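C-alpha coordinates in:
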Protein backbone atom coordinates (compact mmCIF):
# COMPACT_ATOMS: atom_id res chain seq x y z
CA UNK A 1 0.00 0.00 0.00
CA UNK A 2 1.11 3.53 -0.73
CA UNK A 3 -0.23 6.87 0.50
CA UNK A 4 -0.50 9.38 -2.37
CA UNK A 5 -1.40 13.01 -2.99
CA UNK A 6 -4.00 13.24 -5.73
CA UNK A 7 -3.17 15.47 -8.70
CA UNK A 8 -6.34 14.81 -10.75
CA UNK A 9 -9.32 12.50 -11.11
CA UNK A 10 -11.36 12.09 -14.27
CA UNK A 11 -14.60 10.33 -15.12
CA UNK A 12 -15.07 7.56 -17.65
CA UNK A 13 -16.23 3.97 -17.87
CA UNK A 14 -13.40 3.41 -15.39
CA UNK A 15 -12.68 6.35 -13.08
CA UNK A 16 -8.97 7.26 -13.32
CA UNK A 17 -6.51 9.27 -11.24
CA UNK A 18 -3.03 10.72 -11.28
CA UNK A 19 -1.06 11.17 -8.07
CA UNK A 20 2.35 11.44 -6.48
CA UNK A 21 3.62 9.04 -3.81
CA UNK A 22 7.04 8.82 -2.21
CA UNK A 23 9.74 11.15 -3.55
CA UNK A 24 10.09 10.60 -7.31
CA UNK A 25 7.08 8.26 -7.45
CA UNK A 26 4.29 9.19 -9.86
CA UNK A 27 1.09 7.31 -10.77
CA UNK A 28 -0.60 8.39 -14.01
CA UNK A 29 -3.88 7.21 -15.54
CA UNK A 30 -4.56 4.53 -12.93
CA UNK A 31 -7.92 3.07 -11.82
CA UNK A 32 -9.82 4.64 -8.90
CA UNK A 33 -12.01 1.92 -7.38
CA UNK A 34 -15.08 3.09 -5.40
CA UNK A 35 -17.87 1.61 -3.30
CA UNK A 36 -21.07 0.58 -5.07
CA UNK A 37 -23.75 3.28 -4.88
CA UNK A 38 -21.33 6.04 -3.93
CA UNK A 39 -19.00 8.12 -6.03
CA UNK A 40 -16.82 11.14 -5.40
CA UNK A 41 -14.23 13.14 -7.24
CA UNK A 42 -11.54 14.40 -4.86
CA UNK A 43 -9.86 17.74 -5.47
CA UNK A 44 -6.15 18.05 -6.23
CA UNK A 45 -4.27 17.89 -2.94
CA UNK A 46 -6.52 15.25 -1.37
CA UNK A 47 -4.93 12.07 -0.09
CA UNK A 48 -5.42 8.56 -1.42
CA UNK A 49 -4.46 5.01 -0.57
CA UNK A 50 -3.40 2.77 -3.42
CA UNK A 51 -2.73 -0.94 -3.59
CA UNK A 52 0.12 -1.99 -5.80
CA UNK A 53 0.75 -5.47 -7.14
CA UNK A 54 3.58 -5.16 -9.63
CA UNK A 55 2.32 -2.80 -12.35
CA UNK A 56 -1.34 -3.26 -11.30
CA UNK A 57 -2.22 -0.17 -9.25
CA UNK A 58 -5.67 0.75 -7.88
CA UNK A 59 -6.67 3.59 -5.56
CA UNK A 60 -9.08 2.12 -2.98
CA UNK A 61 -9.78 5.15 -0.82
CA UNK A 62 -9.43 8.89 -0.57
CA UNK A 63 -9.80 11.61 2.04
CA UNK A 64 -9.41 15.36 2.24
CA UNK A 65 -8.81 16.56 5.77
CA UNK A 66 -9.09 20.17 4.59
CA UNK A 67 -12.88 19.76 4.38
CA UNK A 68 -13.70 16.86 6.70
CA UNK A 69 -16.45 17.56 9.25
CA UNK A 70 -16.30 16.45 12.86
CA UNK A 71 -19.02 13.98 13.84
CA UNK A 72 -19.94 11.98 16.93
CA UNK A 73 -19.20 8.29 17.39
CA UNK A 74 -21.50 6.18 15.19
CA UNK A 75 -22.59 9.11 12.98
CA UNK A 76 -22.23 9.36 9.21
CA UNK A 77 -21.89 12.49 7.05
CA UNK A 78 -21.73 13.28 3.37
CA UNK A 79 -19.84 16.53 2.74
CA UNK A 80 -17.97 18.49 0.11
CA UNK A 81 -15.44 21.29 -0.20
CA UNK A 82 -18.20 23.94 -0.23
CA UNK A 83 -19.38 23.07 3.29
CA UNK A 84 -22.55 21.30 2.16
CA UNK A 85 -23.33 18.56 4.65
CA UNK A 86 -25.90 15.81 5.05
CA UNK A 87 -25.36 14.39 8.53
CA UNK A 88 -27.03 11.32 10.01
CA UNK A 89 -26.82 12.19 13.71
CA UNK A 90 -27.30 10.16 16.86
CA UNK A 91 -30.91 10.03 18.05
CA UNK A 92 -32.12 9.31 14.49
CA UNK A 93 -31.81 12.94 13.37
CA UNK A 94 -30.83 14.07 9.87
CA UNK A 95 -29.26 17.51 9.47
CA UNK A 96 -28.86 19.12 6.05
CA UNK A 97 -26.97 22.40 5.95
CA UNK A 98 -24.49 24.55 4.11
CA UNK A 99 -21.63 26.50 5.62
CA UNK A 100 -18.62 28.48 4.59
CA UNK A 101 -15.23 26.80 4.44
CA UNK A 102 -14.60 27.64 8.10
CA UNK A 103 -17.79 25.70 8.99
CA UNK A 104 -19.46 28.66 10.66
CA UNK A 105 -23.22 28.81 10.15
CA UNK A 106 -23.93 30.86 7.03
CA UNK A 107 -27.20 30.92 5.14
CA UNK A 108 -26.97 29.21 1.77
CA UNK A 109 -29.58 27.60 -0.44
CA UNK A 110 -30.03 23.86 -0.28
CA UNK A 111 -32.20 22.54 -3.11
CA UNK A 112 -33.67 19.06 -3.40
CA UNK A 113 -35.40 18.41 -6.74
CA UNK A 114 -37.32 15.18 -7.22
CA UNK A 115 -40.95 14.05 -7.63
CA UNK A 116 -41.41 13.17 -3.94
CA UNK A 117 -39.54 13.92 -0.73
CA UNK A 118 -40.95 11.95 2.20
CA UNK A 119 -40.05 12.75 5.80
CA UNK A 120 -41.35 10.29 8.38
CA UNK A 121 -41.00 11.58 11.93
CA UNK A 122 -42.48 9.76 14.94
CA UNK A 123 -43.21 12.90 16.95
CA UNK A 124 -42.77 16.08 14.91
CA UNK A 125 -40.97 17.95 12.15
CA UNK A 126 -39.36 21.18 13.34
CA UNK A 127 -38.22 23.94 11.02
CA UNK A 128 -36.10 26.71 12.48
CA UNK A 129 -36.44 29.63 10.12
CA UNK A 130 -37.71 33.24 10.27
CA UNK A 131 -39.85 32.65 7.17
CA UNK A 132 -41.28 29.49 5.58
CA UNK A 133 -42.54 29.90 2.01
CA UNK A 134 -44.54 27.27 0.13
CA UNK A 135 -45.24 27.76 -3.58
CA UNK A 136 -47.92 25.06 -3.83
CA UNK A 137 -50.85 23.98 -1.70
CA UNK A 138 -50.63 22.84 1.94
CA UNK A 139 -53.08 20.02 2.65
CA UNK A 140 -54.13 18.94 6.14
CA UNK A 141 -54.87 15.25 6.81
CA UNK A 142 -53.89 14.47 3.22
CA UNK A 143 -54.55 10.72 3.43
CA UNK A 144 -58.19 11.08 4.51
CA UNK A 145 -60.70 13.94 4.44
CA UNK A 146 -58.13 16.69 4.40
CA UNK A 147 -58.52 20.08 2.79
CA UNK A 148 -56.02 22.54 1.42
CA UNK A 149 -55.24 25.82 3.16
CA UNK A 150 -56.80 27.74 0.26
CA UNK A 151 -60.02 25.67 0.65
CA UNK A 152 -60.07 26.40 4.39
CA UNK A 153 -59.40 30.09 3.72
CA UNK A 154 -62.29 30.19 1.22
CA UNK A 155 -64.64 28.55 3.74
CA UNK A 156 -63.63 30.99 6.49
CA UNK A 157 -63.82 34.09 4.31
CA UNK A 158 -67.37 33.33 3.14
CA UNK A 159 -68.84 31.70 6.26
CA UNK A 160 -71.93 32.93 8.06
CA UNK A 161 -73.73 31.65 11.15
CA UNK A 162 -76.97 32.39 12.99
CA UNK A 163 -77.06 35.74 14.81
CA UNK A 164 -77.48 35.32 18.55
CA UNK A 165 -80.13 38.04 18.95
CA UNK A 166 -82.51 37.51 16.02
CA UNK A 167 -81.53 34.11 14.58
CA UNK A 168 -80.75 35.48 11.09
CA UNK A 169 -77.41 34.84 9.46
CA UNK A 170 -74.48 37.12 10.07
CA UNK A 171 -72.53 38.68 7.27
CA UNK A 172 -69.23 37.17 6.17
CA UNK A 173 -66.24 38.13 8.32
CA UNK A 174 -65.11 41.71 7.81
CA UNK A 175 -61.48 40.54 7.67
CA UNK A 176 -60.50 37.67 5.43
CA UNK A 177 -57.90 35.11 6.35
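Residues out:
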Amino acid sequence: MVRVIIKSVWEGVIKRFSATGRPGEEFINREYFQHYGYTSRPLPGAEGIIIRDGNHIIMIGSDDRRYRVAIEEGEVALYDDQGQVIRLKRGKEIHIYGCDKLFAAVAVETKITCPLVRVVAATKVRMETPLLEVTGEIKDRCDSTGRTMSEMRGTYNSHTHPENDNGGPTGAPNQGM
